[in-house]
Amino acid sequence: MLTSDYIQKNATSANTAEDLTSSSQPSFKIEIELNNLEELISNSTRIPLTELSIVDRDWLLHQLNQIKENLPVDLATAIEIANCRQQIISEAEGYACLIVKSAEEKASKILQESAIVRQAELDGAKIRLKTERECEELKQATLSEIEQLRRATIAESLAIQTGADNYADQVLGDMEQRLQQMLEIIQNGRQQLD
Asked: Confidence class of residue 47 from pLDDT cuts 50, 70 and 90?
């Protein structure tokens, strides 16, 4: 009875953790924004006889700001997912404690009713120690797995952020070089007019 009550109670909290992960995922997708940025550059008006293009400055700055603002959100989402895993482990530990407590209460009742009180006390102590040891092993294994998942998530988030930063830097450097070339062409044209 204790087990089924606990499972029903915690089924709701497990669903809440799943909802948290799915609802916390932002609608912003870094790949889409980077593709939009690339499309803007690819579809921009070309200056004849050059490799230069004219780009809408305001729209470009808007896209770059979108990317800058939402990278921290993606990182926070990854950390939040790792935190939900910790909540599930905590609930499992609580369930294990309830099982141990229930077993201890039943053992105490049996001992009081039994004629072989001493033997029952020894058996109960062994069961308790074994259960505690198994719970501790399970806890350590789970904590180790959570730590590995957390490290992997953080490493992946950092790699994504570094890749996005490098790509943005490359695009901005290329744009800067093209704009400088365009400025030189304009200045040369004006000098020839004078």
From this structure: confident
Domain range list for the chain: 2-193
Q: For residue 22, what pLDDT is reported?
A: 47
The single residue listed with the structure tokens 């950390």 is 79
pTM, 2 dp: 0.30
